[in-house]
Amino acid sequence: MSPFETPVVCAVIGRTRHKMMQAELEEAGKQGAKLIELRLDFLSKPPDFKRLLEGRPCPLIATFRRPADGGQWRASEDQRFMLIRQAIVAGFDFVDLEIDIIDKIPRFGKVQRIVSYHNIQGVPDNLEEIYKQMCAADADVVKIVVTAQTPADNLRVMALLKNAPKPTVAFCMGDMGTASRVLGIRLGMPFTYGAFNKERQIAPGILSFSELHKTYSIDKINAETKVFGVIGDPIGHSLSPLIHNAAFRKLGMNAIYLPFRVPRGELASFLTGYREIPVHGYSVTIPHKEAAAKCATECDELVTKFGAANTLVATETGFHATNTDAQAALDSLRANLPLGADNQQVPLSSRKVLVLGAGGVARAIAHALHKEGVYVTVTNRSEERGAKLAEEVGCKFVNWTARHQTECGTLINCTSVGMHPNLDEMPVHQSFLNPELMVFDTIYTPETTLLIREARTRGCHCLTGVDMFVRQAGLQFEQFTGQAPPLDLMAMVVRKALSPVHIKEEGESAP
Ligand code: NAP
Q1: Which residues are designated catalytic?
Q2: 444 Cα–ligand 1 center, Å
Q3: Prior bond of 263 cis (ω within 30°)
Q4: What is the CATH number of domain 249-323+469-497?
Q5: Average pLDDT of the residues in 55-71
């Protein structure tokens, strides 16, 4: 029923100048695009169809989107109809027609009609009725795009795809809808849309053409693809989809890992609703770690102790919750301990560790180190929280103002001081740093914090948060799949994503 053999990413190109639109068309062709939508409403001058169609690298969709539907069209409806008719005659392969105007635009030649409905406010109560009407209309492809206000909206839209009588593209806009743009492919959507140049703000929540190919491997997704994901709010900048999907690809697994934005307080209903997909496992991040521990039907020892989980694995009856942060931090420290004078690693248990912070990560690390027999001191800006953690762990607490007087051989920063965007902050004075000190900064955005930079300058043995981040993801991957994670590849992917050079390349990838 699909016009394509395998699922396709439709590259969406919207530029104000013909020259740039042509340049992106050519580049999309070089990057293997199999379908391109030209958002002709973006053009600042009337479209020159001949110019845009010559040398087309693949089938083209002509779209003139109205502002009410999220577009840039500024002139009258009559002028829009005239240009749509001209685009059809000029030889576009597909034309996008909103459901309310299809009677005004007659079918012509072989041009295929994508009959669309957009709602930039939310999901209408009569969504299913609208879809029924669209399927009955003269459409080759039916397209429904609404805006997710809750995670459950994605499920409602995806339900349309289950018994679709016509090729249907249905998904949710907005960052809460991002996952539906990929999940719909599993349910038979012939294509999904990807912004060829993400800086152009084509549509809220849209992924880029490049990430849909490289990270989500859209053309490999089918009904058997296993689904995993990360739950958080916000979630748009999470690196987890990048590394887990890279690992699936490396091991040749038919699996996909998606970002799910779930607002605080909605985790329980989300987990229940999304069982129907089903999702086999989740990474859990802020603000859901405590809620995840509460929602789980089984918890491992650490989760019970901390009351917080960063991993949920689906079981027959619910979810098994674990916390991979503590193990990852220990593995990371053990693998990176400095060598002593005898060229042997000084064992972890003989080190005095000062933990800065008393949040989730500090808690996991302080407990784990104490259990290993390490002499731990906790310090925290908020005295009450820090003292409570120290009491819970059974270790020493020092006041934040007294932290520089603490004797230690290893300093672990578990605060967010120095994290993006506060790059010029560090949690200790530089005079505290000496060549005998090992410095572990758990922050990984950026990898080289000011603390790490200063510590390196002063000859400290340093460990960054990337190693721990990759290991905690690796432990999750093992729980999700039962397979050993390709840690080197995962670390490489994270470092590439964090490198300023790469960010520049991404931003400049298209003319
Ligand atoms: P959290 O629960 O929110 O705790 C934040 C901690 O930072 C608290 O102790 C807080 O002190 C302290 N803090 C914040 N601003 C401060 C300031 N201006 N001065 C002094 N202390 C300040 O966060 P979390 O989940 O534990 O995460 C903490 C850090 O760990 C994050 O920055 C993140 O980058 C890193 N992390 C790394 C990994 C990894 O795998 N490498 C994983 C997760 C998190 P108060 O109690 O006084 O507010």
Answers
A1: 289
A2: 12
A3: no
A4: 3.40.50.10860
A5: 96
